[in-house]
Structures are given as C-alpha cells and as structure tokens.
Amino acid sequence: MVRMVDLIEKKQKKEALTTAEVQWMIQAFTADEIPDYQMSAMLMAIYFNGMTEEELRDLTMAMVESGDQIDLSEIKGTKVDKHSTGGVGDTTTLVLAPLVASVGVPVPKMSGRGLGHTGGTLDKLESITGFHIEITEDEFTALVNKNKLALVGQTGNLTPADKKIYALRDVTSTVGSIPLIASSIMSKKIASGADAMVLDVKVGTGAFMKSIKEAEKLAQTMVNIGNSVGRDTMAVISDMSQPLGEAIGNALEVKEAIATLKGEGPADLTELSLVLGSQMAYLGGVGADLAEARRLLEENIQNGKALEKFKVFIEAQGGNPEVIDRPDELLPKAAYQVEVKAERAGVVSAMEAEELGIAGMLLGAGRETVDSELDLAAGLMLHKKIGDKVAAGDVLVTIYSNKEEVTPSIEKIQENITISDQAAPVQLIHEIIH
Ligand code: URA
Ligand code: CA
What we know:
The structure is a single chain. By secondary structure, the protein is of the alpha/beta class. The protein has 17 helices and 13 strands. The protein binds uracil and calcium ion. Residues 89, 91, 244-245, 247, 253, 256, 269 line the site of calcium ion (CA).
C-alpha cells in the first residue's frame, strides 16, 4: 500500500515519484483522503527539490483527470488557446481573439470574471450594451464553426485538484515554485480542450516572474509539459515592467482593442498582439512559418477584416455592433476626468505596473474581492510611457471615475511614475520559445 508519508520522504531525498505514485496522490488528495498537512509538506518538498520532466507530465495529467474535461471535438480545425501569466491593462485577448479568427483559426473562448487589477475578458465585453454569454453548448459550437469565434462562460468542474492545491500553496508560501505554477496553468489549459497553446510569460515588476531567467525557466517548463502530452506549445517572454498599451479599465480597454484592430492602437500592444497572434495562427495551421502568419494578420488589420470579425462576434452574442464605429458615444462614460501632471521635466524612467493597476482598481476598474462591484467606465489612460520626454505640467495620466473623490488613486499614480534625467529602454519581447 502507498503511504503519503513515504512519498514525502522520497521527494525530500530528491527522488522522483513514479507515475502511479503521482496519480494515487492527486486522486486521493482530491477525494479528501490525504490531509492538508501532508500535502503541505509535499508541496514544500517540491518547492525545494523540484520535479523531473516525467513527474511534471504525470502531475499535470493527474490534475487534468481530477475533474471534467471540455470536449471541443465538434469544432472543426485546430483549437489554439492563449494564456498570459497575468499583466496589467493587458488588452491582448480582446485584440487576439478576432484577429486570429479573421485568418480562419477557430477561437472557442471560455472566460471567467477577473480578480484584481482589471476585469476579465468577459467583464470588459459586458461594457458593450446587450453582449452576453448565456448561450448553450450547441450554440457555442455552431457560432465557432460559423464565425470562428465565440465566448462562453466557464462551466463544469475543471481541475478540482489544482483548486485544492492552490488554496494550500497560498497559505504555505509555495505559490512561487516553477514546477507548481507550470503544472497548475497547463492542467487548466489542457482540461479546457485546447489542441495547441501559446503562452505569454510576463516578466518585470508587474509580473509573477521578476527576472528574465526565472521567466525563461517557467516558459520552458510549460512548453515541455505541453509538448510531452501532444499539445503543440510555444511561449513568448514579454515585458511587464510597465502596463501594456495605454488603457487600464474595462470600457477603456474595449476602445483600445477597437483602435488596435484598426491599426491605430499603441505600438507595444500592437506588436505583442502580432507576435502572439502569429504563433496562434501558425499552430492553427495558417501560414508556412511565423513570418507568413504575421503577414496575414497585418493584412487583415489593413483591410478591415479583423475589425469586421470583432463586429460580427459582438452582434452574434447580442451586443450592439455599432460600438465598433462609435465607441466614444456608445461605451459607458465616467462622470469625472482628472488629470495627473508631471511635477518636473525629464524622461519617464519607471511606471510600476502592478501599483498602477491598483490605482485603477481603487476606482472600480478591478475587483478587490470576488464580491466587489465593477465600474466598467472607470480606469486610467496613460499618456506617457517609459522613455517618453516630459515637461513640467504635462499630463501623465487621465483618471476616469464615477466617484468624485480620487485622491488615493492620484497618490498611487504620483508615487509610481518616476521622472529622471534619463531612462533605460524597455525591451517588449525578450524571447520566443518553441
Ligand atoms: N496561475 C495559475 O493558474 N497557477 C499558478 O500556480 C500561478 C498562476
Ligand atoms: Ca491596455
């Protein structure tokens, strides 16, 4: 008989667990047959001693098999999903979904609500009047087959083992372990039914991974897991030392996505969307190589097909398609706009992404707790980014708020944007891992 204490001892001695041992452990823990204190000890042993590629594959698949798995086989084509390890004002999903669908790759999107800096993709889209995700599974399949794009709420009991383990990691200081993060993320993606995956691993002050070396290790670990279970996986390591794009907030990000799909968006958001999008398109079978996939995406931004795809998608799920042409008029508007200005001349040298995200959250752009009410109109527009020259009195940020009192946000913004005599340039894409 397997005993958990023996497995803990094995991992403590840096020995590898067998496939059967990993499967037993995850199955028994999910069934509440292993107490939290023993799993906590195991997690700490993994934190210090790591896992082999085989153990990681076994752990990931055991977590996948701990719950329901989404069956997307009725949807034609290679289903490619994207995962971002979490950014601030990260509008890429809103841009990527229609952009990639516009070249013919199916994008069956499942989304939950956001917690923290900004809302999730669903929250953002709900700033469009009428848009909803109350569609049946059959409608979802039919819409993706017809338009290549649809969004539905996450249903089913996916990866309950991950949920239980994550709750323990949170209180045992074992969240920051690369094998545990990699298996957690990959198990959820695999259970969601994707055939192939593109991972956007963020690095910088606003991200989980603070150094490029750590981000590379996480990306490589996730790519290895995906490829070892037959799901083509690629990763990009991208900068999160400042927020991406200019908008932080739900309606503001929808407007930013519309501009980007027209070719008029911020340079960094546009570039990251094209890099991630070309990987998704290529893995989805469009384009002979990444360069050709990128060219096809650029073409669809130029000729309006990407924006048209967004419009068709919004209309198919009850939203007002006019929002594409008249976003300023039709998206929710904040009652107050407050400008935060530069106190001195110089160059913007730092913009703490996470803190600026919190400044937006305080206005209602994100949820502090799961029960917090979002204000879809609230948020920030950044008029300067790292490397931009400023004169004293230039507007750095505009605050959009329905609350008149915004002092805490102003203070957060002032504390977290640094103006110096010079600035180190930001590199947006650090590496691409195949
Ligand atoms: N996101 C996840 O889903 N899991 C982790 O462990 C960390 C980030
Ligand atoms: Ca943004």
